[in-house]
Every structure is written in C-alpha cells, then in structure tokens.
Amino acid sequence: MNLLAIAQLNYPNIDPIIFSAGPFALRWYSLAYIGGLLFAWWYIRKGLKGPGQPLSKEHMDDFLTWATIGVILGGRLGYVLFYNPAYYATHILDAFKLWDGGMSFHGGATGVVVAVILYSLKHKLNMFAFGDRIAIVSPIGLLLGRLANFINGELWGRETDGWWGMVFPHDDKGLLRHPSQLYEAFLEGIVLFIIMIVLSRYTKILKKPGMLAGIFFIGYGTARFIIEYAREPDAHLGLFGGIISMGQILSLPTFIFGLWMIWQAVQKSK
Predict the structure, then answer these.
(1) Which helix (H) or strand (E) segment is 24 a member of?
(2) What is the residue extent of each domain of the chain?
(3) What is the pLDDT of residues 64-107, one digit of tens each?
(4) Which of 50, 104, 171, 266 is 20 to 30 A off residue 206, Cα-Cα?
C-alpha cells in the first residue's frame, strides 16, 4: 500500500477563500482574526458582572478597536522585523501589503500588550487585571489562526515517516510532513484555553493581578518552543547555529516575560 497516496488523501483541500465578489475575497485566515477578536470581546464582556470588576462593558466595547489595531500592526511589524527585515528594508511599501500574508504571533501579542498598557493608563485601569482577562481568551485566537494556517496549507512541519504525515499542496518537494499547524492548534489553543478557564473559574488566581497572564505567556512560550522541533523552519532563515529556530528564539523572552508577570503578582499580594 502506498503510504504517500494515503497521506495525500488525508489532507483536506479546503479553498482558502470562503467567497469572493469582484476584487473582494473573504478568506478563512481573515475570518480567524475576526472570529478571535469577536470571541474575546463577547467572552470578557459576558464575565463583567457584579462589583469589583477591573473594567466595564463600555471599556471592553471601546477596547475592541484598540485590540484590533494592536494585533494587526504588531503582527505585521513583528513579521517584518523578525522574519524578513532584509527584504522589507529594500521593499518598504511591501510591508503594508497585508493581503500578501506574513504575520507574527509574538508581534501581535506585543501589540496587544502595548494596547492594554496605553488603554489602562488612559482610563486609569489596573493593567495587570485587565491583561488577565485578555489572557483567558487569547488561546481561542491562536486556535483559529493555526486552523487557518492549516487550511492555507502553509507553515507546515518537518519531514516525517509517521502515518499521520501529510503532503501539503504548496510544498514543491512533495514530502510527508508533520501537520504542525494542528499540533499548535491543540497545545496553544485547546489545552491552553482549558488551563485558562479552569484557573480563572475554579481558583482565586484573579485576585492576584498579572498571574494568569503570566501563566499564559509561559504556556504559549513552552508549547511553541516544543512544537518548533516539528515545524519546518522558514526557508530563508533556517536554524540559527543549526539548532534553534526564530520561533524558539522569540519564545524565550515570551517565557521570561511570563515569569516576570508571575513574580510581580506574587510580590504585590504579600
């Protein structure tokens, strides 16, 4: 039995474009961003009941725009600076072509962190408590984003001889590869979301502002670092020193930032 043929059948050839009308096209990737932001807005807003909340529903309504800008600008700027600075240094206008793809989660996360800080300062909110609420729902955005990567047939994994290997349509080498997008969707999305929900609902962790956000950053940094061993490095970057990818390098400060968040939460609770 030809294992390669089975793998080819296992990849669902879903059209990345949901529908189009003239020059307009709605893509699954765009819908992932929209869905993640709207879910975050709905879930956080739903939980703002009773006294002692770190923000109001009106704040959340207003912050949705800030978060959208933070995700898009941060994600794009992160990709430009971290993954292809040499190209964009000589093709500056291409940096604004969001429709050509190229977003960085680490950059998007940084953009949201900046948005939380600026919004909290403007409205005199507790930025750490605010950040905890954002952390609870962030895994859903990761889940949807990775599923969109899978549908697009991009950011695939390294070569494997496992029966679960897949041949991705845009891979010129036609190799059986790890569906690493699904690994990330599971660990960074589903598992991390369950952890966030359990901690926020069944413990008193929200009484220590910043701790839940710290756990999120540690969880994401750890999951991303591990899965990078199954993910194909960017062709133009490869592995630095032959051992570590750009995704792993960026996950280290993410992990450290999470540790700092937990440390400050513990210090303030003493």
Answers:
(1) strand 24-27
(2) 3-269
(3) 999 999 999 999 999 898 888 888 888 888 888 776 677 898 99
(4) 104
